[in-house]
Amino acid sequence: MRLALAQTGPSPAVESWAARAAAQGAELVVFPRLDLPIDAVAERLAGRGPAVLVGDRAGSVALLRHGAPVPCDVDGSFAAVAEGLLVHVGAEPFEVRADDDRLERLSRVAAESGAVVAGVNLVGGRDGVVFDGDSLVVRPDGALIARAPQFVERLLVLDLPGSGEIAPRLSDEAAAWQALEVGLRDRARAHGSVVLPLTGRLDAAVAAVVACDALGPANVVGVAARADDGRELALRTGLDFRVEPIQPMVDSFLANLTLGGAALGRLPDRVRGVVLGSLADQEGRLSGHDPLGGVPSALVARLARWRNEEAERRGEEAPIPPYLM
User: Fold this and answer.
1) Are 198 and 233 a contacting pair, CB within 8 Å?
2) Could you tell me which residues come within 8 angstroms of residue 205 by beta carbon, excluding any fewer than 6 positions away?
3) Are residues 7 and 134 in the same domain?
4) Per-residue pLDDT tens digits for 220-253
5) Which domain of life is it from (predicted)?
6) 76: closest CA among 95, 89, 93?
7) DSSP code per residue over 264-295
């Protein structure tokens, strides 16, 4: 059997992907769990193309031939679509080293079932969740025979039980950085640009560089309360750098409010948020989103070192000022 794994985003042009697979002689095309309802996929494929296995966001899985459903034995998350072939139709969010767990899980199922097992995963962002693809195929003996690259759409075609492309894995840091970029692009899709705080801390600098990589420096506005908090980062990255002193605004609040304890300590951050949100509203940019999304500080430091080393490897200036490391 010639199998095609369509590692796509949540809302692909399924007829185009199926046509590409058919042009390469595929007898079965497998899609991940899509945002498209299965009946909509069936309508698009009516009367043409190879057999298609597809899942939807609600958890349903169907095997379609020329758009019409045909019997498909689904046991848990695996579908038996041909003798000796099990397929997992997935939408598994990215986690650092999750690709290792995915390979181990599918290898275990292959060994237990005595079948070739293929796993197809989404790629891209959806509602703040990031998917890295990493679709793969393993033999019953656990041998990996095909694997799609991470974070890119790919049609992976192979003849079973032979082997196909095996894309190299990204390092943990490279994969995490890619995930942060994809997540920000997804969140900023409606705006195309973002406003971020520059506080003079490492986490803010890393967030700004992620945004520059994801959207381009011209689409990133970095706002600092003091010029020293972001001037060098702006020079290194080319982002739109602005200084908006917040202390006079904080003083104005304190002249009219009596605050103490935690409320007083959080006031500067709240004022900064108002400034960033107002600038974003004025210019139609995204604000209030943290590109790092709660990444632990230890990983932030690793990502900063990795990103600077990558720049130096390419003969570019390191984007993150060394004094922040």
Assistant:
1) yes
2) 198, 233, 304, 320, 321, 324
3) yes
4) 999 999 999 999 999 999 999 999 998 999 899 8
5) Bacteria
6) 89
7) HHHHHHHHHHHHHHHHHHHHT-B-S--TTTT-
